[in-house]
Amino acid sequence: MTSDIDPRQPLTHQPLDPTWWRQAAVYQIYPRSFADANGDGIGDLRGIISRVPYLERLGIDAVWLSPFYPSALADGGYDVADYRDVDPRIGTLDEFDEMVAALHAAGIRVIVDIVPNHSSDQHVWFQEALAAGPGSPERARYVFRDGLGPDGSQPPADWESMFGGLAWTRVPDGQWYLHLFAKEQPDFNWDNEEVREDFRRTLRFWSDRGVDGFRIDVAHALAKELGDSLPTQAEIDAITEPGAHPLWDRDEVHEVYADWRKVFDEYTPPRIAVAEAWVTTPRRPRYASAEGLGQAFNFDLLEADFDAGQFRTIIADNLALSAASGSSTTWVFSNHDVVRHATRYALPARNGSTAKQGRDWLLSGGTEPVADVALGLRRARAATLLMLGLPGSAYLYQGEELGLPEVADIPAAERQDPTFFRSPGVDVGRDGCRVPLPWTREGTSFGFGDGGAHLPQPRTFGELSVQAQDGAPGSTLELYRAALALRRELQTDETLEWVPGRADVLHFTRPNGWHVMTNFGTDAVPLPDGEVLLTSEPLPGGVLPGATTAWVRAAV
Ligand code: NOJ
Ligand code: CA
């Protein structure tokens, strides 16, 4: 870090800092569900612009916008029809520029989502591929194959898609195309130079508009080993050797990112990227390397129970890993794909598979097991305050600063997620964490917009609204605001030191005497000496109660 850069100063004061991302607090906006300015029930860029003061007051360093591109919404926008435009239901490119300017003026950087593994079936290239027929250069941009059997009516392989059902779909002339996700999301062929060139163009397009970085969707897909004879799903499932899977996490994918790195480095400061790569922990550093994307999501805490032992191992492992890659580590509890952490922690522990447990709970309509809502929120607040004290970047998901729970009772007729439709009875999908935000106590869609909300909000959202929590002592919103402001002030080197103690308590210090202590148990425990700066719950009798985190400043 150069000496004229002060991590506590917002972007407006140091726009050229190339290390801004290393310990940033990044807030994920799911644009369709954030704020709806024109009252059509869908969140939009004007809505985001109108809420820049809210984001500034929250104290985040950057926003990451989930896709806002033209899309038929077969997968909540992760089916992109045009990578270099804005969905007219969400806004225009001019409004995008206005939004970036407003965010930058507020000291907030902008990260956009890039979806390179697949496009929408509405993308002009896929439409051209359908029209051009087998063997054409248009088809070579995607993964087309003849079927098996005498008349080719059997799929080229029995692979299952990530959303359930077959990963191959037949087109009218008899060929089949690959889609690892929904059938409306055909996979690109990353051996094709036109595909590569088009994504370089897209990265430059948004970088030229002032975007500071990119979140890379399913970054561990893209490269595939597709010979003439394809393995069966059972054969693929039996592969355990790292890098040997034909579809996921192949070493060749890093050539793509090395190429993108050159594009990122054309800019000052270099554009940043964070990989969404669901790979085993030892395979993660390569995605996070300085020659590649530079940073990768670490989803380990998102799978963990609210448990001191699990947290300690995960934190230690990931700090060691980031030290090895040279990147900073990332932390995340909630995003648009998983059951919100206030709800996961309301369910009994299930040995490190809370994400799956949350999905099972949704299947029961949110009744089995019974959620302890108050305990879930209390634990979520403690976990977040712990995370915001860790070295590295913290990724927050819109609504978690309000302590929103997962919405479990969305009627089938109103569900949108393809997971629900493609895996009937097995998975209800991710709509419950994508319900529009409540801004006001009352009113149409609790202030989300005048035209109602595109997913139904529960009545309890009124009391969790921004209006209800703004200025309310002890509210979750005020806790996030206080924590983010203090975090900026206290931020220091990317290291921590564990303080030994009870098995159900985690206690570490940062180099400047910043103590973070979380009590995962139920017995109250004494606090370290020093000035208590912030706690996730009140401290009766001056000791740290169960499911509570404290930040303490001690002399160094
Ligand atoms: C990961 C995204 O986060 C998820 O929402 C999406 O469905 C898949 N990638 C496919 O693009
Ligand atoms: Ca709208």
Task: Describe this entry's structure for a reader.
With 556 residues, the protein is α/β, with parallel strands linked by helices. Helices cover 27% and strands 12% of the residues. It has 16 helices and 16 strands. The longest helix is centred in the middle third of the chain and has 18 residues, at 308-325. The chain binds 1-deoxynojirimycin (NOJ) and calcium ion (CA). Calcium ion is lined by residues 36, 38, 40, 42, 44.
Low-confidence stretches: none
Which descriptor suits the 3D outline? globular
User: Could you give a short account of the major beta sheet?
Assistant: 8 strands, parallel
Strand order of the largest sheet: 9-8-7-3-2-1-11-10
* Radius of gyration from the alpha-carbon trace, in angstroms: 23 Å
Give the number of helices. 16
Total DSSP E strands: 16
* Beta-strand share of residues: 5-15%
Q: How would you state the average pLDDT, rounded?
A: 95
Could you tell me how far the N terminus lies from the C terminus, measured between alpha carbons in angstroms? 23 Å
Distinct ligands: 1-deoxynojirimycin, calcium ion
Structural class: alpha/beta
